[in-house]
Amino acid sequence: MTSARELGLCRCHTCGLLVRYQVGSVCPRCASKLQVRIPRSLAWSWGFLALATFMLLPANLLPITHFYNKGLLQSDTIFSGIMALYRSKMGGIATIVLTASILVPVGKILGLGWICWQLQRSKPVRRKRQLLMYRVIDFIGRWSMLDLFVISLMVALVDRGVMLSVRAGPGATAFAGVVVLTMMSARMLDTRLLWDKAAR
Ligand SMILES: [Zn+2]
Asked: Do residues 153 and 136 lie in contact, with contact meaning Cβ atoms separated by under 8 Å?
């Protein structure tokens, strides 16, 4: 299958307009700089992914919430918060929080890592796998804020009726870091690289 690049065309990465490409030209519609491929896309993507993986440690080990329980300052990590929800017979919410705060972020990191690795290999990618990879990136991009939303819900819901004030701990900042870095990794990954790797 012919790609736009082979025809001397380039799709604007900002507004999607298809234009005839010349080095250094800008998009006639939105004035963004035109790039046939994002420069060093894979290196950027790997870099953000490595940082996101590293941030998983403080996100899971440091307290995500601090609260007062009967006058005593207590803290919850993501995991102890989930266990507390289960113990308080809020299994449904606990499952949602577990999915959004552990399974989804780790799944996104593994998915992006797999795609980067496949793109890096010299072996061409088969069309079916290529499309699957494209859909994974698309899916990650579309739902990238969901876990951040759910975790903020958790901070509100974890109020088990015993505390006067809840505030976010350093783990919450690290978790937001994981989400944002994963988003940056997905954003820097140029999906057009997938078409260049097509099995011929
Ligand atoms: Zn444009």
From this structure: no
Q: 65 C-alpha to center of ligand 1: Å? A: 43
pLDDT digits (tens, 9 = 90+) for 53-66: 999 999 999 998 88
Structure tokens at 51: 């940082």
Nearest CA to 96 among 86, 106, 88?
86
Query: Where is 167: in which H helix or E strand?
Result: strand 163-168
Among 187, 132, 176, smallest CA distance to 154 is for: 176
Contact 38, 188 (CB under 8 A): yes
Q: What span, in angstroms and rounded, lies between the C-alpha atoms of 147 and 71?
A: 31
190 Cα–ligand 1 center, Å: 16
pTM of the complete model: 0.81
CA distances from 183 to 102, 125, 148, 187 (A): 16, 24, 11, 6
Separation of CA 11 and ligand 1 centre (Å): 8
